[in-house]
Design goal:
about 300 residues, alpha/beta, 2-enoyl-CoA Hydratase, Chain A, domain 1, 12 strands, about 45% helix, disordered N terminus, binds ligand LUC3G6IP, lipid metabolism, transit peptide, fatty acid metabolism
Length: about 300
């Protein structure tokens, strides 16, 4: 559904969208997506400025934008709609939740569930990564809060990352801290951004970086005062938009296609691997302990 907000700005909400089969269209698979009109349940908010072609997608899945199956599906559907929309030229990804960009994958989706659930969840994680890493349009992550693990992955898929200058916010692939392992395509995305040695240390220690440290290792491209994150993202998008589109798009694809193709060539095996890994008693125990630690932190 779309409603006009102010001149040239459309508010697009996917509402309680449903996927009829598989996941979003990319590479060899395709999906028919439908939307119902219940915007109140929407976990994202998209504003497309038709005068500039810039869409701002805000994540609003309380409390911490953790990436559960529904949320991932909704993001994927909206990205697909924007990709098909000729009036959209680039997408800024940001958060409507205070202090958090995204808490990463929803741990509750990987804990105490059955293998079928794990498989469906992992498929949706693959879908969002394939959609974003292979996205034809420009994407900029306006990182206005903490961004661990899967949250960092979402940011890493963007063409450019701008982070709020707040030392309380951290970003990184901290999977080992939970006793789990970032899969090869998380690793490849990190490696393509920060280089081999930094990725190796970062992944083994499960390091989380403050904005200034993230800038030093090129995990983010720019650190700006919090209130300027969105405006800087818009300015940066304008610079990207000044480049001839087809040349930029081919260059992006040239850099990323080998990594995308690697997952496409073994999606089912990757799902099987995940299900077998996450179902192990020792891994379930680690996740249970981590969840308890998160709860205790409060008290
Ligand atoms: C051999 C190879 C095999 C390969 C197999 C591959 C396996 C790989 C599998 C998975 C990859 C995993 C990727 C991930 O993304 S895992 C998730 C990592 N995320 C985190 O570690 C973040 C944890 N959370 C935090 O650090 C903090 O919550 C915070 C900084 C995000 C926010 O802090 P604060 O504002 O203080 O809020 P609270 O901590 O109080 O949290 C509020 C509320 O939310 C719950 N919560 C937080 N994060 C998550 C999450 N990721 N999933 C689910 N729930 C989360 C938290 O527990 C609180 O809940 P409440 O007590 O009920 O209110």
């Amino acid at each position: 559904m779309a409603a006009v907000l102010r001149r040239g700005v459309k508010l697009i909400s996917s509402g309680s969208s449903q996927l009829l089969s598989g996941g979003c269209k990319h590479g060899r698979t395709s999906t028919l997506c439908i939307s119902s009109s219940r915007p109140s349940s929407s976990k994202i908010n998209v504003e497309l400025d038709s005068s500039t072609g810039i869409a701002v997608m805000r994540f609003q899945n309380p409390l911490v934008n953790s990436l559960n199956l529904d949320f991932l599906t909704e993001i994927c559907i909206s990205l697909e709609k924007l990709e098909l929309d000729k009036s959209c030229r680039g997408v800024i990804l940001t958060s409507a939740q205070p202090k958090i960009f995204s808490a990463g994958l929803d741990i509750l989706e990987m804990y105490g569930k059955n293998p079928e659930h794990y498989a469906a969840f992992w498929k949706s994680v693959q879908e969002i990564w394939l959609k974003l890493y292979g996205y034809s349009k420009i994407t900029i992550a306006a990182i206005n809060g903490s961004s661990p693990a899967g949250g960092c992955l979402i940011a890493l898929t963007a063409d450019y990352r701008i982070m709020a200058d707040n030392p309380r916010y951290t970003i990184g692939l901290n999977e080992t801290q939970l006793g789990i392992v970032a899969p090869f395509w998380f690793k490849d995305t990190m490696l393509n951004t920060v280089g081999h040695r930094t990725a190796e240390l970062s992944l083994q220690f499960g390091l989380m970086y403050t904005p200034s440290d993230a800038l030093k290792i090129n995990l983010v491209d720019l650190v700006v005062p919090e209130e300027q994150v969105l405006s800087t993202a818009t300015e940066t998008m304008t610079k990207f938009l000044a480049i001839p589109g087809h040349a930029r798009e081919i260059s992006k694809s040239m850099m990323r296609k080998p990594v995308v193709d690697r997952l496409l060539s073994c999606r089912d095996a990757d799902i099987k691997n995940f299900v077998s890994f996450i179902s192990k008693d020792s891994i379930q125990k680690s996740l249970g302990q981590y969840l308890s630690m998160l709860k205790q932190k409060k008290s």
